[in-house]
Amino acid sequence: MWLVILLAVLVIIGLIGYTIFRHRRHLLTTTGTKIDPRDRPNSALLIIDLQEDFTLAKGKNGYEPALVDKVIDAINDLVTYANENGYPVISIRQTFKGWYVNFLVNLLNKGRGGPASQGLDIDDRLLGDIDHDIVKAHADAFREPVLEQVLERQKVGKLIIVGLDGNYCVNKTTHAALNRGYEVSFSDATTLAIKPSSWRKTRSGMMARGATDRINNNSNDTSQPANSANDETKMNEPAQ
After folding, report:
1. pTM surpassing 0.90?
2. Omega within 30 of 0 (cis) for the link into 131
3. CATH number of the domain that 162 lies in?
4. Residue 138, domain member (yes or no)
5. In which domain, by residue range, is 51 found?
6. Which InterPro entries is this protein grouped with (predicted)?
7. Phi, psi (5° rounding) for residue 199?
């Protein structure tokens, strides 16, 4: 009897340890190869995980619908500007891989982001032309080699990163871009975060690494949220 209990405890401990390992692996930020900004004069707009699975979610893992509308409107302004001025718009979409990861996704988050989900497409409120659509399996979009290939081909050295979630995929992709020497900008107006208090800390960490909060105009006070994307669009015209 005691042997059975001991084995059960060991199995539970093993599962907990493996779950923690997989979670940390999912959130791992890559380093990559440094780019030469002199060879990368152009800008690109990266839209992270703006999928129906997440934008339409309800409950504790959902966003306030009115806020989602506002953020998508602000992102649409950037997409329009990018389309009109000739720099690429890149959609990054999450699809989890691996049986155990998807078991947890089904168990804890109603299968959102899983390969069998019906909500993997970009939210249809997002307007304008998407030039590239990249599917990722981890928080850091740079773990998908095709992203760097696209950016190199387009001679992109400046990234505007928008979407969700600010504390996870937006954050990890931003740090991965900074590790590679990209110039990165973001804003509250174009970022969704489930935990606003954590987002303030996350945002401060991004700015400390060199990312620019365009709408707050490089302000050292990162506690005040931005409320418009107009300044950002004006400040990110691609180099000719």
Report:
1. no
2. no
3. 3.40.50.850
4. yes
5. 35-235
6. Isochorismatase-like_dom, Isochorismatase-like_hydrls, Isochorismatase-like_sf
7. -60, -35
